[in-house]
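hey so u asked for the seq, here:
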Amino acid sequence: MPAQVVVVGSLNVDLVIRSARIPRPGETILGGEFHTLPGGKGANQAVAAARLGARVSMVGRVGDDAFGQELLNNLSADGIDHTFVLRDGASATGGALIVVDDAGQNTIVVASGANMNLSPADVDAAAVVFATADALLLQLESPMETVIHAAALASAQGVPVILNPAPARPLPQELLTLVDVLVPNESETALLTGMPVGNQEEAIAASAALRLAGVGTVILTLGERGALLAGATVSRLLPAFDVDPVDTTAAGDAFLAGLAVALAEGKGLAEAVRWGNAAGALATTRLGAQTSLPARQAVEQLLAASPAPSQGDGS
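ran it, structure tokens below
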């Protein structure tokens, strides 16, 4: 039976414009192609996990509008259970304005909309899917009290809690002690620790500080350098896969899904990070958020074409 992953988080509609470069403040430039695409970190991670072979249940909110229905239809198309994605008549569906330059870098502004109405009671209503889950994926595009409540519910049932602390903001001690695997990038790590992460030694020190704060394992994503795995018995850098990037949107979400699915299937930490690296790399080779998320076969092919990690991954 496939591993079951529960995702509690955001669903957005992404309005994406291609541009030769990202405009400076106050500047107007002519862009290229315009796309309306499904997004939101929670939905991105849910779709990515489903394409990697997991059974996925999504918990969230969308507006009672046309965009909301489109996002629900999109979840259905990937076989995702959205029984607990509620239609919110008080707020519009969340949206993101995204500019992507010719180097594949992007800027993003998010209007949270219905996402910020997701409540602890909404999580409790979905308790049935937590009971059979192999992993819980969380981000920070929902109210903090709801994120904490979901982590506590999963932890009480022995479900591993994987938190992507994005968008970056300080995390309460109550949440840190509930997190089994924390997956920040460099800027998020710097904000959480107040420490520099400009090189590997600094990244190791910052990861150690997060573990001292109560986190079980830290996986610090380093973009084209790969990811640093810092656990109770291991600290190692797993290199990124070499691809030609087109658009980095949702690469982090693909990484999270690859990691979560691998861990839910019982793979060790180092192998799970490799899955994350492979999924994230492939996501950069296509435009958009969910449109770029790879299928399991593509990830397995990329993994097979590269050397496996050495033994002793500490898991």
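Residues 10-25+34-304 form a domain with the UDP-N-acetylmuramoyl-L-alanine:D-glutamate ligase fold (CATH 3.40.1190.20). The two ends are 23 Å apart (CA to CA).
lmk if thats what u needed
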